[in-house]
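QA checklist item 7 of 12: single-chain prediction sanity check.
[x] sequence parsed
[x] length recorded as 173
[x] structure emitted
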Amino acid sequence: MTHSEIQHLIARDLLRIRAVFFRPEEPFTWASGIKSPVYCDNRLTLSDPAVRTDVEESLAQVVREAYPEAEILMGTSTAGIAHAAITAHLMGLPMGYVRSGAKDHGRQNQIEGKLLPGQKTVIIEDLISTGGSVLEVAMSTATSGYSRRMVSARPFSTSLRTAGAVSVRRLSQ
């Protein structure tokens, strides 16, 4: 499936399960602080087996094509965790996730999962507006000695023209 076909498939899926909300009179505030008349509740994709399959198989395809040397997938906390886990399972790869901060109990980890320094890591996020949370995860993995790359399941962006886009962007080698 081409990237354009994936975009259209995911956009149709999101509209079918009513995951896209419009509120021009009272804009939504995203985690980034951006105010938008549009909100996409990507967590709803996990509740629909057919849509979940479309999203995760598309992510696996993008990772295989863009990052064939990937050794581990990392989810962003919390929305990227399920996507990373399912995609990693489909690809037969290990998976972990990065919290926004270290826990204050137990082993006090920020990075969860068995990761080895130097592993080529693909970071999975469910939605990107400014990229702030993904950059935080990338910096956390970098300071821990992991190679970092990023792939985003981006079912909705601020432009309706790019609805359903699965975007890939290289952060570093």
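[x] summary fact logged: The chain has one domain: 3-169.
[ ] second reviewer sign-off
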